[in-house]
Amino acid sequence: MSTIVQAQTQVVTDPKGFQLSPGNRRWILLSILFGFAALAFGVFQGFVQGLNYAGISLFTMLPGMKTYYEGLTAHGVLNAFIFTFAEANGWLSMMTARGLGRNLNSKLLALSFIFLLLGTIFAGIPIFAGKASVLYTFYPPLRAHWAFYFGIALAVVSTWIISAAQLLALSAWRKEHKGERIPLMAYVSIMTYIMWDISSLGAASEDLFLLLPWSLNLLPGSDPLLSRVLFWYTGHQIVYYWLLPAYVSWYICIPRLVGGKLFSDSLARIAFIMFVVLVPVGFHHQYTDPGIGNYYKIAVLFLTFAIAFPSLLTAFSIMYALEIGGRANGGKGILGWFWKLPWSNPAVSAQVLAMIAFLPGGITGIMNASYNMNLLTHNTTFVPGHFHLTLGSAVTLSYFGIAYWLIPYLTGKELVLKGLARWQPWIYFLGILIFARGEISGGILGMPRRTAIAIINYEPLPGWKLAGALTGIGGTIMFIACVLFFLVIFFTLILGKPKETQEDIPFCETYLGAAPSGWQLILDKLSYWVLLSFILIGLVYGPFLLTHLPPKLTSPPFQGF
Ligand code: HAS
């Protein structure tokens, strides 16, 4: 370690401090709390879905729920879209503001929040009325009420508004800081949104130009193949829009919270650039779809392995930061540092457990991406096993950890029920391990996903009962842990004592900082990476679109209401 040159830290513009404006603070806090409220509604549905696999059918017992698919749609939309959009909007607005040392435009933050709120209402009413049981992938020819598609569009626009606010702030910052490197905290936050801007174009155009007019009877039919291609163009990258806010915390805050340092500024930037450039991988969700040539499937197979690489870079960088922290706390030997991490701080334990869960989460992703393994896992519970270790753990547990310091930071109130907060991440982690063991093993034995298994009228295959029971038990434990989290946050909001001192956002230092000259400057030329991304998208999706367009609007709707 002594051979590493200490460079000047460029993580934030002004390390001495920064004050969020009341407007920024209000809309960021509202967005974060709104996201957790959506999660609370969503996990109720998730609890019932988990019990389904254990053979217990409670779908119709929840208010407004009539069928299994209504509940599953509500679970997916609330947890995968509304919760994640709201958290990312709030969290990365704040990190951009702190990184650049300038508040974002409060009116834009307010507008974004209103769009997300309206989007949730528009999409939520038909879901709970049984008029949009189309699941969160909303494949045609399943048809929902028009308000559902409209609501989804509003929710996506809310994210674009945040991106606009970030880019406006960056452009103003650049005028005042000519020739300076973009501070790392702002860089990773802005790159996350740039990646999402490019990625969201597929599902947004599907929603706005195909599904919404179709649901209003303005088009003669739907084009399921084109719709699925557009959806999955976005559908894989959305997982990185979920994940990268957690990475922002892992890169920027975790090294500081554990008493370590980030190894390299450039390595972190390269990881985020790879997520921006390697957008076109969605066809790996369509390995088994007819109508898509092998060229596309093989191209994305390699690109998918390539996009796992920045996560491996992240694993290296973060593990190194943890090790530095653990050793600074007195840890010795190969793994002794691990036990010396500040485990009593729930902001740390939740996020380190999230990382550990992400190890099997990532491995199962790579298994899914391997074409012949996918033939085994596709449409089985292996897939929800995978995504509860990623979205349900790496992301959600990270947001729990972030909230344990962020809510006190934004409200100026001390966290209450600290003992409960300490246990909560461990309980959730235990739950996810049991849940994922159930889903993954069941999936390998052919247990189908998206199936009301509790009421099937055929004999389950051998092994499904144990797998299903584990899924139900794990899901219940996860649900209990979520309730504990909501209790801590709720009581902090209403009973938390005013903090005596207001600390800054925890941000790291780097061993190898942002070089002021040399090849690294190209990392900040954001437009180059966007251009490269579009070239790659053109190469992968261009031939498909050229041969397929115009849309074949021939499929009549299937409308379950
Ligand atoms: Fe995935 C399906 C492939 C990542 C979410 N994925 C899904 C679906 C969701 C989802 C929701 O190729 C289902 C969609 C649906 O409804 O049909 N996925 C991948 C690959 C990755 C991947 C290759 N997925 C994610 C992430 C998600 C997510 C992240 C949410 C946030 N996924 C697939 C494929 C399918 C799929 C196929 C289609 C399946 C089908 O047929 O339907 C990779 O990006 C994963 C790379 C990750 C790693 C792990 C790095 C580990 C880190 C932690 C380090 C630990 C530390 C602590 C530092 C290589 C960074 C350690 C401390 C110690 C002491 C140990």
From TrEMBL:
<feature type="transmembrane region" description="Helical">
    <location>
        <begin position="184"/>
        <end position="204"/>
    </location>
</feature>
<feature type="transmembrane region" description="Helical">
    <location>
        <begin position="343"/>
        <end position="367"/>
    </location>
</feature>
<feature type="domain" description="Cytochrome oxidase subunit I profile">
    <location>
        <begin position="27"/>
        <end position="493"/>
    </location>
</feature>
<feature type="transmembrane region" description="Helical">
    <location>
        <begin position="295"/>
        <end position="322"/>
    </location>
</feature>
<feature type="transmembrane region" description="Helical">
    <location>
        <begin position="27"/>
        <end position="48"/>
    </location>
</feature>
<feature type="transmembrane region" description="Helical">
    <location>
        <begin position="427"/>
        <end position="447"/>
    </location>
</feature>
<dbReference type="Pfam" id="PF00115">
    <property type="entry name" value="COX1"/>
</dbReference>
<keyword id="KW-0472">Membrane</keyword>
<dbReference type="InterPro" id="IPR023616">
    <property type="entry name" value="Cyt_c_oxase-like_su1_dom"/>
</dbReference>
<keyword id="KW-0249">Electron transport</keyword>
<dbReference type="InterPro" id="IPR036927">
    <property type="entry name" value="Cyt_c_oxase-like_su1_sf"/>
</dbReference>
<feature type="transmembrane region" description="Helical">
    <location>
        <begin position="526"/>
        <end position="546"/>
    </location>
</feature>
<feature type="transmembrane region" description="Helical">
    <location>
        <begin position="266"/>
        <end position="283"/>
    </location>
</feature>
<feature type="transmembrane region" description="Helical">
    <location>
        <begin position="148"/>
        <end position="172"/>
    </location>
</feature>
<protein>
    <submittedName>
        <fullName>Cbb3-type cytochrome c oxidase subunit I</fullName>
    </submittedName>
</protein>
<keyword id="KW-0812">Transmembrane</keyword>
<keyword id="KW-1133">Transmembrane helix</keyword>
<feature type="transmembrane region" description="Helical">
    <location>
        <begin position="387"/>
        <end position="407"/>
    </location>
</feature>
<feature type="transmembrane region" description="Helical">
    <location>
        <begin position="108"/>
        <end position="128"/>
    </location>
</feature>
<keyword id="KW-0813">Transport</keyword>
<dbReference type="InterPro" id="IPR000883">
    <property type="entry name" value="Cyt_C_Oxase_1"/>
</dbReference>
<feature type="transmembrane region" description="Helical">
    <location>
        <begin position="467"/>
        <end position="495"/>
    </location>
</feature>
<keyword id="KW-0679">Respiratory chain</keyword>
<feature type="transmembrane region" description="Helical">
    <location>
        <begin position="230"/>
        <end position="254"/>
    </location>
</feature>
<feature type="transmembrane region" description="Helical">
    <location>
        <begin position="68"/>
        <end position="88"/>
    </location>
</feature>
